[in-house]
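Let's do one together. I've listed all components of the complex below, 863 residues spread over two lines.
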Amino acid sequence: MNAMIQTLAEVDAGLHGARALATLARDSAVTGVTRQGLFLDLTSLPRGDVRAETVQRARDAVEPLLDGNRARLFELPDASLVVVWRSLPAGLLERVGRVLAETPLDRMRETATLADVASVLHLPRDARKLADRIEASLLPAAEEEEHATLAPLHLADLARIERAVAHADLIGFLRRQPIYARVGDGFEQAWERRALSVDAIIGHLHPGYDAGADPWLFRRLTRLLDTRLLSLLATPEQLRSARSVSINVTVETLLSPEFLHFDAMLPARLRGAVVLELDALDILQDPASFSFARAFVRGRAYRICLRGMNDLLLPMINLPALELDYVQIRHSQALMRAPELLEAAQASGAAVVLSRVDSHAALSWGQFRGVTLFRGRVFSQKRASAA
Amino acid sequence: MGAQAPPGLRFPATSADKRLWGPSVMRAEAIVGSRAGSDAVQAPQDMLRRIARGRSARVVVILHLSRLRAPAPRPHHHRIARAILNEAAQRHGGQLFTMANADIVLLCEPSFLGTSAGRHSPAEMLAALFRPDAGEGDALVDCVLLPEDSAVVDAYVAARLADPALRPAVRLGARTPLSIAESISPGVDVTDMISRRLVVRIDQGRGGLRPDGERVGIGIEALIRRHPSCAAAQDDPFLRQHLRGFLGSALMQSLRRDLTARDGLHRGPGEASGLPWQIDLGAAGVLSDGFEPFAEECLAQRPRSQIVLGLREFCADPEHFLAACARIRAARMGVLLHVGPVSSLPLIQPRALAAGAIAPDAIALDWDNRLATAAPSDRAVIEAALRLLPLDRVILSATDSEAAMLWGAVRNMPRFEGRHVDLLLATRKLEKRRQDDGRARLLAQAPAELNAAMPAAFAHAALRTGRAAEAVGAAA
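Okay, and this is what the predicted structure of the assembly comes out as:
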């Protein structure tokens, strides 16, 4: 919901920009007043946070070039940027060109720069062209089509992605999701889940492909991302800002050199404040290694959470035998119809974290059933309405 | 302290209450035993012996990873043990040695033993960590005080020098990266990559083994031989699962050819022909377009076959898995649920597994070497879980030893599959051939009139041959 509110806000700003730019173009065409503009077409970038980050970088790049009220920046709904000057000072275009050429298109395409997506406009000569472009920016169809034609990843694609991911700076793909605890009459953040967004990474490195189409290739990729996340979180700047966090791991990751490095870097204040989230598949794959890893991480004061449980998986897994601290269960209509599953999980000795709590009804149901830890969009809505 | 040592941790008697050591400073350093040559391997042993004969107060902690039961010590065992001991080495001015037999030795200051109250020492932690993988009897961690117990270190070093052969070096390498040198078409001919293994049933009435089914699937070793770019699948279960689904259509296509050619590819005359298949197709294969026509053809030409689906697939995507189950049943085939190692049973709910949403027609459990030597408490938990399973539907898979087969037979498991089963069947075949050869020789040597007069005698011999073969199975 948070992301959607953000998107709506961006579109709204874009509509405002589109209207203003269209008015300016029309006025120029009617009156013959000349204007020069710079069009930064950012539509070729993958959608989502990567594009948002790049738009911000582009904004930052052109900001110093806006010369008081002699220039104006317009943002279009498709994230493209247009800067229009009343009169172009001598040498400005060259200056702009230099700045754009020095600004990478985004963090992971180091060879491409903003200059590659820039074009110069002269009004009123290019008024028609600009009007067409504004109109195109208002059409939402492109995104729908993009989603509809996602192709499954193949081994060769995955190999390419693995190589890119191994050395890329992934900080821009780090996502945070709060987990809230019911405290008294309100909610407080219990910890923050940190994860790398697979969709954003695939959308960036290999646009048009669906990472989740094959569950096994997806898991191979997420296992790699888990280790990359550990390396990322083990950096001093991340550790400095970290409070209680949870991270996705596999049993294999817990026994990897990357985890040992993370563990060695973990400051004393975070001991006991890190929750390790495992899934049932991973545990059943190698129960002996799970037992070994569990004993090891417990000895190092980590807490263990079984993630991704639902009404179908819960009856199959012997939760008490796993000796967990938390079990994360997805809220669903089916779960509401089988509350005994939730009760059994609560009786296992592990604290239940109810996830996908996207509505007030789901939150109320969880509270009524005695759940005290929640994750979901309903909290983003609360924050948005509070703001 | 020696008297209260936790299981697996041992202190020599004279080392028990000596805590009066002065501080000393040693450099923390790891020396890894090399597989390259005996000189390098002997270096830590020589150093240990030299220090043992000195007069300074030291503690020698020996972690006997070589005493772990196979498949341990695995690479992560080594990695974690080294991390824990390395930390202790840094805290207590120590030095680490990795011996050629996989043991790790920490030589450090006596302060190592003086851990704060309520906190486990690294030695106790290691003993607890490795207990499930350790055999009964010998301690896994020895803490030796120097100079008092230098004889213990001397004896240990002498034993290492006398080791008959070096164990292979522990592989600490990373996972094999994916290669894109070669891409596989989903329609590739996989005929020579198909693995086939007979499933046998214990014939209670006659006391022998009789073939009951044939497990067919893509053999990962054969696949890698043909497509070296798939080498990463060797040690990656996710990749193996992917390839299983990816090549499902090709497997069905190849099996259809097998159905058409009635003489089969790997069967001897009359052998296994007409046995139901247990096809390792996975949910992805079942949900592919080719499944229905394949199932139809299969049903027309073979007894009711079963499709193998893994419990891991269920955990990965339950909805997808149940859709595959429904499709299998709609095609009038059976669902064989491959659960994984027997040791995973305590982690699941056997009753729900057998009767819940999946309700499989058969359940395959993999034999696990740990069962033979598991602690009594662990064994009891597994036995309790087993009692909740409908054993008449269980197939003990990966039956690779006589111990495995006996373990299953004692628990009334009726069906088996694995290398030991293959061995028994091969023995039976050889025995039969030997007896057939003997008959042929007799026939060649006997006068014609005797041959004409003795058909009943040879029929009797044939009958005896059959019984002998059964006897081989029964003896196993």
